[in-house]
Design a protein that fits this description.
Elements: H1 2-13, H2 23-30, H3 40-82, H4 98-112, H5 120-127, H6 130-136, H7 145-160, E1 165-170, E2 177-178, E3 187-192, H8 198-202, E4 206-214, H9 218-222, E5 236-244, E6 248-254, E7 259-265, E8 270-275, E9 286-288, H10 299-310, E10 316-317, H11 323-333, E11 336-339, E12 350-351, H12 352-365, E13 369-372, E14 377-378, E15 390-391, E16 393-396, H13 398-415
Helix pairs in contact: 2-3, 3-4, 3-7, 4-5, 4-6, 5-7
């Protein structure tokens, strides 16, 4: 069985290497000549990241199972109370049996005690709120909120205790978290714990995104503030994303060292490299944009989409609701993602620090491009003004992105 497993992964790797390569082995052996990753602190950073992703994957899978059982239980109770052809009033939406809540909390706590997830002190923070998640899942305005909060806690607990970070910034928090002086490291972590929490309820793909910036000067470690932590993408050393789906996939980009993919092997309890030096096709076959806001798109975006629909080799529409899964698809197959400015969202909806910069970093490393703001600005060169600043953005295959960028350039030239 082991020989068959190795043979399968050898084909997936598309290399002549007959042995499986773990994430830690990749960093230690393949990146030893890279000054960015060839440090004990960076290795510790990656080991911490691996633990975080394992814990997050367990929680997402647990939530899927609990919510499915909760939905079945609610449906049975609804039929008993109102009949199969009746619709229940709003007051009954959150009614779930106490037995199910107890089962759900026990299930998540058992997973929290798994050695692959956390030590004992981490388990308490991961398990908190299990029942509230199950209770609130059927409130349409709160779906996914609590699972995102739990993933947020996992990130904070691990990295705050790892002695690798000085500041931690989450898309869910209003401000930075300052690490205690005795545990401060050289990195600033920016992350989005869950990009599409609604997808958890439906068992669909969702993901996390992150980036690490290294600041090594003494003043930064001793005198931290918001100003010296709002940094452009040119300072990013490492960025990536996690896909939670039928498998857990960690895609990692290291500055000047390419983009690499690792898949969690539950039996081995480690991430195995399944793709290396990934390159996005120079031209893709899909586009992603929120078509529901098409009436409020600016002229350039509207003309670009209309043009792509009429071309002989027209682009197909692709939409999952998850930016992370769309990024994953585009890296592998090519295409373009567009989040334009629109009525109600004049500054776009993509967080610059938590989403746009990691995407732009990965695109650069795998041969794609990413622009934002007025359509001509390289996202990696944009200086954040606030922690939660959002921008219009488009990224993807080089030819597709440059086509839209050229249309913006011609539009501004004609306006003058």
């Amino acid at each position: 069985m082991d020989s068959i497993f190795n043979e399968i992964f050898t084909h997936v790797l598309d290399t002549e290497v007959a042995e499986l390569i773990s994430l830690s082995e990749f960093i230690y052996f393949n990146q030893r000549d890279n000054p960015i990753s060839n440090t004990p602190e960076f290795m510790k950073l990656m080991l911490t990241l691996e633990s975080v992703v394992k814990g997050s994957a367990h929680l997402v899978k647990a939530s899927n199972i609990i919510e499915k059982r909760a939905a079945e239980d609610l449906e049975l109770e609804r039929e008993e109370m109102f009949g199969s052809d009746s619709s229940e009033p709003d007051s009954c939406i959150s009614h779930i049996s106490s037995d199910l809540l107890d089962d759900g909390e026990d299930f998540i706590c058992n997973i929290g005690s798994n050695p692959n997830l956390a030590a004992g002190q981490k388990q308490r923070s991961v398990c908190s709120g299990a029942s509230s998640r199950t209770q609130s899942v059927f409130f349409k305005d709160e779906w996914g909120q609590t699972i995102a909060e739990r993933l947020n806690t996992v990130f904070v607990d691990y990295f705050a205790d790892s002695s690798t970070t000085s500041l931690i910034a989450s898309e869910m928090d209003k401000t930075f978290m300052l690490i205690d002086k005795e545990k401060r490291g050289s990195y600033v972590l920016y992350y989005s714990p869950l990009d599409c929490p609604y997808n958890v309820y439906y068992g669909s793909t969702c993901g996390s995104m992150f980036s690490f910036v290294k600041k090594t000067d003494y003043k930064f470690k001793q005198y931290l503030n918001m100003e010296n932590a709002l940094l452009p993408g040119t300072y990013v050393d490492c960025a990536g994303y996690v896909i939670y789906g039928c498998s857990t996939v960690l895609t990692l980009g290291i500055r000047n060292a390419g983009v690499h993919q690792f898949t969690l092997d539950a039996n081995l309890g480690m991430f195995i490299m399944t793709a290396t030096n990934m390159r996005t096709p120079i031209k893709g076959k899909i586009y992603t944009i929120d078509e529901s806001s098409s009436l409020s798109w600016n002229q350039v975006v509207a003309e670009y989409i209309d043009q792509k629909k009429k071309e002989e080799e027209r682009l197909d529409y692709y939409q999952t609701g998850s930016v992370v899964s769309t990024l994953h698809y585009i890296i592998k197959e090519g295409g373009i993602f567009i989040d334009p400015a629109s009525e109600g969202y004049k500054h776009g909806q993509t967080p610059l620090l938590f989403t746009a910069i990691p995407m732009a970093f990965l695109m650069k490393e795998c041969g794609g491009e990413c622009y934002g703001g007025n359509g001509l600005q390289n996202v990696l060169e944009m200086f954040p003004q606030t922690l939660h600043e959002t921008i219009p953005v488009f990224f993807g295959s080089k030819k597709d992105v440059e086509g839209l960028k050229d249309m913006f350039r011609k539009y501004y030239e004609s306006a003058h």
